[in-house]
Amino acid sequence: MQPLSLHFLHEQAGARFQDVQGREVVSDYGNEAAEYRAARETVALHDATYREALRITGEDRTSFLHGMVTQDVKGLAAGASTYAALITVKGAMVGDARILRRDTDLLLDVEPGLGVKVREFLEKFLISEDAELHDATEELGVLRLLGPRTPELLTAALGTPSEPLPQDATRPVHLAGQDVLLVGNTRLQAQGVDVLVPRQGLEAVWKAFVTAGGPLELAPVGWRALEVVRVEAGVPRYGQDMVDTTIPLEANLTHAISYNKGCYIGQEVIARATFRGHMNRKLAGLRLGADGAAPGTELKKDGKKVGWLTTVTRSPGANESRALGYVHRDHLEPGTVLTVGEGPGEATVTALPFS
């Protein structure tokens, strides 16, 4: 298990740790409910430096990646970011990535454990282009801010007014002696911001946020509470809710697809599915009430399998189990009640994000 760069700081704060795809993450700091409340009501700070990164350099880097992902890369301005999926010629997902276009390279920010898989997929199609792939995981780390007081925290830490950032919008700033990049991450939470920090500056930036966040009731938040926020926002995670048989449209990833960019690997499958107007199954929210269940548990209607659970969490805010899962299109109407496994537990289909 690859340890976090800030392991010792988290240990001092009473953190408990877990493994996610071979990388260490903070599970919690001893009070998951309090961490969740901070993400919902004040401001929360999450160490997401377990994420992995790739850099692409070379004169042909932009055109090469443009033909490999579902999103428009050529039209991306320098310093801008976007979210994209990588898919096979059959339309099945290889992974997903946040793409940042910089002056001299392209940066791909991916889920833990996904770096090697994405690199091997890209290298398979890299033939005569002037482009080169590099592991950038040890160059950059991601710190995640959540909660309605995030703009206040950034204002206090930076010493200048900080307005909310829209999804994928970027803003370079100087913080704690480091040149960092703020990236809007509002899909998780309305005021969410990811902070991309050089690895050598992580400790200084983390401590600056903790100091500035004291009067704002900042709390560090671990993986478990963040997963609740993610599920309630209806944001799927590759490796949990998306696997190598998932088609992006099944996972509600229309925001990751450009329909005007021209050819890319798997485009024909996406175009046909879009023209057809529906997928046989789609990711949905599911309320399990007081009951829990394991990911992978089947969902049934009148004894027939109509889906399965992918992520199951316990929401401290709603005091119920909330989940993501795939449901056949005939049973996606909010309010539909499905049987969980062999019963007697039930799951109620709900629209995403959860209210």
Topology:
Layout: H1 7-12, E1 16-20, E2 23-28, H2 32-41, E3 43-47, E4 52-57, H3 61-66, E5 81-87, E6 93-101, E7 106-110, H4 115-125, E8 132-135, E9 140-146, H5 150-158, E10 170-175, E11 178-184, E12 193-198, H6 202-213, E13 218-220, H7 223-233, H8 267-276, E14 281-289, E15 298-301, E16 304-315, E17 320-328, E18 337-340, E19 346-350
InterPro entries: GcvT/YgfZ/DmdA, GcvT/YgfZ_C, GcvT_C, GCVT_N, TrmE/GcvT-like, YgfZ/GCV_T_CS
Keywords: Transit peptide
Domain GCVT N-terminal: 6-261
Question: Overview of this structure, please?
Answer:
The structure is a single chain. This protein is of the alpha+beta class and 355 residues long. It folds into three domains: 7-51 and 138-231, Probable tRNA modification gtpase trme, domain 1 (Gyrase A, domain 2), CATH 3.30.1360.120; 52-135, Alpha-Beta Plaits (2-Layer Sandwich); 280-355, Aminomethyltransferase beta-barrel domains (Elongation Factor Tu (Ef-tu), domain 3), CATH 2.40.30.110. The protein is built from eight helices and 19 strands. The protein has helices spanning 7-12, 32-41, 61-66, 115-125, 150-158, 202-213, 223-233, 267-276; strands at 16-20, 23-28, 43-47, 52-57, 81-87, 93-101, 106-110, 132-135, 140-146, 170-175, 178-184, 193-198, 218-220, 281-289, 298-301, 304-315, 320-328, 337-340, 346-350. The strands form four sheets. It has a six-stranded mixed β-sheet with strand order 10-11-12-9-3-13. A six-stranded antiparallel beta barrel has the order 14-17-16-15-18-19. It is globular and about 60 Å long. The chain starts with 6 loop residues before the first helix and ends in a 5-residue tail after the last strand. The model has no long low-confidence stretch (mean pLDDT 96). This is Folate-dependent protein for Fe/S cluster synthesis/repair in oxidative stress. Residues 281-354 form the Aminomethyltransferase C-terminal domain. Keywords: Transit peptide. It comes from Melittangium boletus DSM 14713. InterPro entries: GcvT/YgfZ/DmdA, GcvT/YgfZ_C, GcvT_C, GCVT_N, TrmE/GcvT-like, YgfZ/GCV_T_CS.
